[in-house]
Amino acid sequence: METPLRKIIHVDMDAFYASVEQRDNPALRGKPVVVGGDHERGVIAAASYEARRYGIHSAMASVVAKRKCPDLIFVRSNFDKYKKVSQQIREIFFEYTDLVEPLSLDEAFLDVTFARKGKPSATLIARELKRRIKEETGLIASAGVSYCKFLAKVASDVDKPDGLFVITPDEAEAFLEKLEVRKFFGIGKVTAEKLNRQGIYFGADLKKLELQELIRQFGKSGAYYYQIVRGNDDRPVTPSRERKSLGAERTFDTDYFLLEDLQTKMQAIEDEVWQRLERAQKHGRTLTLKIKFADFEQITRSKTLLTLFRSKELLHTHATELLQHEAPFVKGVRLLGLTISNFEEPVKGPIQLTIDF
């Protein structure tokens, strides 16, 4: 049997740190905002799209940025908050595939060749991911879709912000020949300038160089350039971290106030959490309930057992208890979520084997 063509998605959050701050502080929306640095010293960690219109970008000195935009607003970074939002987004990814490779807090590769949910189309899954990220976090993401990691990464940057760009196998060659070498993922600024000095500005120019010439000039990276300009990239999506939690959540079309309605809605969430735990063969001690209200205020309530959540009935009992403890609800509830964490540690050290005769 032939190996199926891979379906790779690269999701990149748009102006992530700055967007989180603008989401949480309405007074910052629509204004030039940078995260990190200060008025006189330091380096900017992230810039909103409003700030980018002035030519401001990450890694720029604060004093230079302030000169470009006198009305620039500086916000102190809060990486604990960004990590929590990143984990929330990653949990959405894990609902579709376990093959998630984070590159940073704000971007990741997903291999959805054999996705566990959604329609059998990487493009439709990418569109669904963007929609869910917007609904559940209030943030905007761009996505690139293709048959390999390199092209998916390049594609996600084509139509930012809020973009979705697809490069099919039939389109790859023509796309790469017209692409500026400075936009090739893996070719940095210095290398791009070196290529430009040789009259190499586009993929079509780069494609004319022989493999040995590229290796002579750039070492192992030269072999990489030779392959990617031809659309060849067989690197797998490699999960880099063991999952520390499993969960599911639902955003409702209608805000609910009554406990009875919310308990009914939560049953479907319990079912999905339990299915995911069984698939992953995980058992945890901590159950966390997340409630997001109509005004986007969010609270979490947790309970940790001495034993493990080894049955669906036990999960239901404690999830119901956590929800009941928050009733009655003065504000409408727009989202419920359940997460299991504090997983059982794998057995370490030598194991005594037995042989059945």
Automatic annotation (TrEMBL):
Q: Which domain of life is it from?
A: Bacteria
Residue ranges of the UmuC domain?
Answer: 8-188
An example of a Gene Ontology cellular component annotation for this protein is: cytosol
Do the record's keywords include Magnesium? yes
**Annotated site location: Substrate discrimination:** Y17
Q: Where along the chain is the active site annotated?
A: E107
**Keywords (A to Z) from UniProt:** Cytoplasm, DNA damage, DNA repair, DNA replication, DNA-binding, DNA-directed DNA polymerase, Magnesium, Metal-binding, Mutator protein, Nucleotidyltransferase, Transferase
A GO molecular function assigned to this protein is: magnesium ion binding
From the Swiss-Prot or TrEMBL record, state where the protein is found: Cytoplasm
Q: Which cofactor does it need?
A: Mg(2+)
InterPro entries linked? DNA/RNA_pol_sf (IPR043502), DNA_pol_Y-fam_lit_finger_sf (IPR036775), DNA_pol_Y-fam_little_finger (IPR017961), DNA_polymerase-Y (IPR050116), DNApol_IV (IPR022880), PolY_HhH_motif (IPR024728), Rev_trsase/Diguanyl_cyclase (IPR043128), UmuC (IPR001126)
| Signal peptide residues on this chain, from the entry's feature table | none
Where Mg(2+) is bound, by residue?
Answer: D12, D106
**Alphabetical GO biological process terms:** DNA repair; DNA-templated DNA replication; error-prone translesion synthesis; SOS response
Question: Which PANTHER family is this protein grouped with?
Answer: DNA POLYMERASE KAPPA (PTHR11076:SF33), DNA REPAIR POLYMERASE UMUC / TRANSFERASE FAMILY MEMBER (PTHR11076)
What's the family?
Belongs to the DNA polymerase type-Y family.
Q: List the NCBIfam families hit by this protein, alphabetically.
A: PRK02406.1, PRK14133.1
What this protein is reported to do is described as: Poorly processive, error-prone DNA polymerase involved in untargeted mutagenesis. Copies undamaged DNA at stalled replication forks, which arise in vivo from mismatched or misaligned primer ends. These misaligned primers can be extended by PolIV. Exhibits no 3'-5' exonuclease (proofreading) activity. May be involved in translesional synthesis, in conjunction with the beta clamp from PolIII.
Q: What is this protein called?
A: DNA polymerase IV
Q: Which organism is it from?
A: Sunxiuqinia elliptica
